[in-house]
Inverse folding.
């Protein structure tokens, strides 16, 4: 999509302070993960200096056979060996995003952990600044009942989509637990709100990654976003704009803002009724597991 460029995830097009830094950090880290180096590198002992510690036969043999490592050897005999570090021949050469129509990325526990922490920080920052009783959207539309439950899930999704904070503040505890106990739909759906939030998070992260990197030929969205089948997969009123996804910058940006608002208001509501709630323990908000970050919102060639 021509003219993409980084765009804001939040309430406004700008960003300042820690929120702005968190946004930039998250997309930068995700880009680093999904554009791995072409050179797999070699792991060698290192220390605070960040250079190679040649203190065993294995390290000596590796260095002797690789001329490009000769200028990366630590000469301080008192420098303590504290870690293993990967050294690359061509560290600047990376696999382009979506090369060959696929999303790359190699297992990297440290980087994956940074990404998850950055995402949690970003969402929590916005959830922290929600002002009780202040409507983010005064537009009034009828609730679209698309799920196959009694309607309570659709009613809550409506409030999240339109930023009805005053209504969320009045939301009854018994209704909240009805929604959080809803397992309608097929076996693949399971807990409905978790199913819904998983797809919302995946859409937001995947779309923002494309915009941040100005991807001109994006993949297609997963077909699950096209309609509500056994479970809700997208914001009902924004679904009509999906045909403009990554074709129209304004429409795509609005979908990003709406999905992100849904995410942090969901956290805002969870905190209200579950004071001990922690994003790290909610699988629907996770970006993969262990040393991998996964995005399953796209259809690949």
């Amino acid at each position: 999509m021509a003219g993409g460029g980084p765009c804001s995830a939040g309430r406004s097009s700008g960003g300042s302070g820690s929120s702005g830094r968190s946004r930039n950090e998250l997309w930068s880290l995700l880009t680093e993960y999904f554009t791995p180096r072409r050179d797999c590198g070699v792991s060698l002992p290192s220390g605070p200096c960040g250079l190679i510690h040649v203190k065993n036969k294995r390290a000596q043999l590796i260095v002797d056979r690789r001329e490009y490592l000769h200028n990366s050897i630590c000469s301080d005999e008192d420098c303590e060996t504290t870690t293993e570090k990967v050294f690359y021949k061509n560290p600047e050469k990376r696999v382009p995003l979506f090369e060959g129509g696929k999303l790359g990325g190699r297992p990297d526990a440290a980087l994956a952990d940074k990404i998850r922490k950055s995402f949690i920080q970003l969402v929590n920052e916005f959830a922290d600044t929600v002002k009780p009783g202040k409507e983010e959207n005064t537009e009034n539309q009828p609730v679209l009942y698309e799920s196959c439950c009694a309607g309570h899930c659709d009613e809550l999704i409506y409030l999240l989509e339109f930023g009805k904070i005053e209504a969320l503040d009045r939301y009854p505890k018994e209704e909240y637990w009805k929604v959080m106990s809803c397992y309608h739909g097929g076996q693949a759906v399971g807990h409905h709100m978790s199913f819904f939030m998983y797809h919302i998070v995946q859409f937001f992260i995947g779309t923002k990654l494309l915009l941040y990197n100005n991807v001109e030929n994006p993949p297609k969205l997963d077909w699950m976003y096209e309609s509500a089948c056994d479970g809700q997969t997208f914001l009902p009123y924004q679904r009509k704009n999906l045909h403009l996804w990554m074709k129209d910058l304004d429409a795509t940006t609005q979908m990003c803002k709406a999905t992100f608002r849904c995410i942090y208001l969901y956290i805002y509501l969870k905190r209200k009724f579950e004071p001990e709630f922690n994003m790290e323990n909610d699988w629907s908000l996770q970006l993969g597991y262990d040393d991998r970050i996964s995005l399953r919102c796209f259809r690949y060639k």
Notes: The first strand starts at residue 42 and ends at 46. The chain has eight helices and four strands. Residues 249-273 form the longest helix (25 residues). The two ends are 19 Å apart (CA to CA).
